[in-house]
Amino acid sequence: METVKIKDRSFAVSIPEETIKERVAALGAQISADLAGEQPLFLAVLNGSFVFAADLLRSVSVPCEISFVRMASYQGTSSTGKVRQLIGLNESIEGRTVVIVEDIIDSGLTMKELLLLLENYHPKRVLISALLVKPGNLKVDLDIPYCCFEIPNDFIVGYGLDYDGEGRNLRHIYTVED
Question: Of 115, 145, 150, whose CA–CA distance to 43 is shortest?
């Protein structure tokens, strides 16, 4: 099994690139079928979702737009529990279907905060898409209709996810080795 070393940690492949690409394409097809006749706005949460967002949008066949917001709750390998909005939304989402594109939903606190913030802009509806969800670590109740993979509560890197800024460029998803 392929391993990589990032800073002081070793990581092993847990989800290979081909498996990720197949699942993201299937998710894009599902979103396209569900949102046929609409023109959704995909709202990608930076920094981690940029790779997932690019691949997902290329697999969506309905007319759509994309915008980006930046929120943070991580430092190192653990959530700080404090959510901060760093970059805001500039487009009007009033009356529109918004699909949030998130790399990973861990505690769910960042997502819950984003959903509350988006309510102020009066969207028609907001749907959540996530590359990864850690159901065993969720601290809030979320409806996540578009999830690629559910994973255990391990720290991971690759495919846009980082460890203190490094590892986003890795093609596979890697799990930290103890």
Answer: 115
Among residues 106, 141, 164, 178, the one annotated as catalytic is 106
The 10 Å Cβ neighbour count of residue 147 is 17
Give yes or no for a contact between 79 and 51, defined as CB atoms under 8 angstroms apart. no
Whole-angstrom CA distances from 110 to 7, 32, 50, 79, 85 are 26, 26, 17, 10, 9
- In a 10 Å sphere around its CB, with 0-12 CB exposed, 13-18 middle and 19+ buried, how is residue 92 labelled? exposed
d(CA 58, CA 56): 5
Q: Find, among 144, 117, 116, the residue nearest to 132 by Cα.
A: 144
**pLDDT profile of the chain (178 residues), mean per 10:** 92 98 98 98 94 98 94 53 60 95 93 89 97 96 97 96 96 94
- Whether the model pTM is above 0.85: yes
Whether residue 106 lies in the annotated active site: yes
Bridge partners of 132, per DSSP, are 104, 149
